[in-house]
Amino acid sequence: MIRLLPLLLFLWPLRHAVAQVHPALLPKPKQLVWSRESFVLTGPLTISATDPATQVVSDSVAAFIRHVSPAAVVEAPRTAGQATIVLNIDATGILRNRPEGYTLTITRRQLRLTGASATGLFRAYQTLRQLYQPAPARFAGCRITDYPAFPIRGFMHDTGRSFIPFDTLKQHIDRLARYKINVFHWHLTEDLAWRLQSDSLPNLTSPAVTLRDPGYFYTKQQARELVTFCRQRHVLLIPELDMPGHSAAFERATGHTMQSPAGKILVKKLIREACALFDVPYIHLGTDEVAFKDPAFVGEMIAEVRQCGKQVIGWYPGAAMAPDIPRQLWVRNNKPLPPMPVIESRNLYFNHAATQADLIGIFQRNLCDTTEASPTRLGAIGCIWNDRKPADVAQIETLNGFYPLMLALAERAWCGGGRPETEQGVVLTDKAAFQEFENRLLAHKKQYFRGLSFPYVRQQHLHWRLLKPFPNEARLATSFPPENGQLDFPGIEATGATIYLRHTWGPAVVRAYLDAPQPDHTAYAYTYVYSPRKQELDAWIDFHNYGRSEKDASPMAGTWDYKESRIQVNDKVIPPPLREQPGLHPAHTEQPYRNEPYELRPPVKIALNKGWNKLLVKLPVGAFSTKDYRLVKWLFTCVFIRKDPETNHWETAGELIFSPDKTFTQP
């Protein structure tokens, strides 16, 4: 075994390497057959797009080729039959009734894109971009037939609470459109602020009535521009004017509640104004989290939208609406879904997500309680609600794991499948499927997200053992035998950089590693880490995920959290970080996080010996809701990392082996 050790350590990083023979495609196509050919971008290339509906994509293909291969000459063919790049629209055969479907065939001599519609052709172009390989410039040879499992695959930004610069919104829309995300849900109004310019009520966006980011709102010209920007990328923009709740900004500006007689007149004006402004089919009216004092209010506002020739979307739970109105789900109560069109957002509020673990949950789950769309099961929208004021826009992207979680949702919503969250949840069960997805995800992180926030690292090989919890009688500091080296207790195998013992919403909603977690218990997790040499490494370590819609307290100086959690490496206790605002219990949500979450502070320095190193994590818990954390998250994060000098991203230290049994052969 000793002689084999150097070879095993050499092969270990290769086994988990991101590099692939073929380009990584995300989302994964329905049908994909690779060939050994490539379409090389040399010499004169001729492109045929005789149908006017193909011209925009044809121009995009030509521009992309000129960008990646400046020496390539792209021109029109003398005859269509001579074209080396062919684009066309054909909604027959397998593409029938699949408007976003496409086929893509790449051989040595020809590149052929066929879409069921102009939208399908645009989706084919996005896949083509991912098939590009440099040195020499070429597209990988293959045959693809592809179409989505769900027609709605989107994301929502709450710009009512926290203003996001217009150019950042465009960047998010543009980048996610490359992953076939086709809906941008724009939440424009909130208690804190009304972000959409109004001619009928100009005072709505006044700094005097805006409690966060005063003076920042979106002009009507920007709204029109964003509709066009989305349409060019085959993305549907859904504007939301939330009513009659979440409307304190309206009340401050007008002196009326929305449900008052005077308020209703003004709201109807705003609806007509928004319908005239947004050249889109839907207006989202919200209707969640409010007491209805006027039972006619919602019906009147729906009628107003319909009189403008548009359709309504509302939250569910929310106001009662006609059964043909699509509803966006936001609370999981484990009851059968009602017989109406629904859009999944349950447990897709990224402001509650721990990126490393909840990405596994998104990848493994189904949507709308099914594996593919039906007339009443439409798809999913991932949402970010920053009730807690972010220090800047970068915090919105980083703390909410925006890009990695959205790419996981893009995969699931396009491919379909998955199982109920109560069956798999954040417990990694199909390791082979996840490994294949994670390899593709990290390939895209490295290639397409340089310089952008992407707070996710490889975790498929990080293996732990969780010991059955000990009752602690509400004394969180109590010590138990594992701290004295006794580890021979019943255990559960776990995999990941962040491990949930109990998910935020409990086992009735999302399965975590403990099937029946109880308050007032202390659990332990341990593993052994093999290092090929003595070294000091950076590590992400944490014991709480700080909710972006919560008033979570900052730990006291000298502590990791309010649960007496701690970690030992080779029997040495690792001290917690210095706190910038120790002991802070914010009275409101306008106090940003500073260095409470691990993503916002320098990594912890950990010394590893050559050979096996013992990691022991102590995980006490009291109640699952306390004065310090409304939502106690029984979890821990531990992963060794280093900075990639090419991308400036943190990446897992790939030479280490995590094994609670000290074995080199990993499952």
TrEMBL record:
Keywords: Glycosidase, Hydrolase, Signal. SUPFAM superfamilies: (Trans)glycosidases (SSF51445), beta-N-acetylhexosaminidase-like domain (SSF55545). The keyword Signal applies. GO terms for molecular function: beta-N-acetylhexosaminidase activity. It catalyses: Hydrolysis of terminal non-reducing N-acetyl-D-hexosamine residues in N-acetyl-beta-D-hexosaminides. Gene3D superfamilies: Chitobiase/beta-hexosaminidase domain 2-like, Glycosidases. Residues 150-258 form the Glycoside hydrolase family 20 catalytic domain. Its EC number is 3.2.1.52. It is an enzyme of class 3 (hydrolase). One of its GO terms (biological process) is glycosaminoglycan metabolic process. Residues 1-19 form the signal peptide. Pfam families: Glyco_hydro_20, Glyco_hydro_20b. Residues 22-147 form the Beta-hexosaminidase bacterial type N-terminal domain. GO terms for cellular component: membrane. Residues 574-595 are annotated as: Disordered. PANTHER family: BETA-HEXOSAMINIDASE (PTHR22600), BETA-N-ACETYLHEXOSAMINIDASE (PTHR22600:SF57). Belongs to the glycosyl hydrolase 20 family. This is beta-N-acetylhexosaminidase. It comes from Arsenicibacter rosenii.
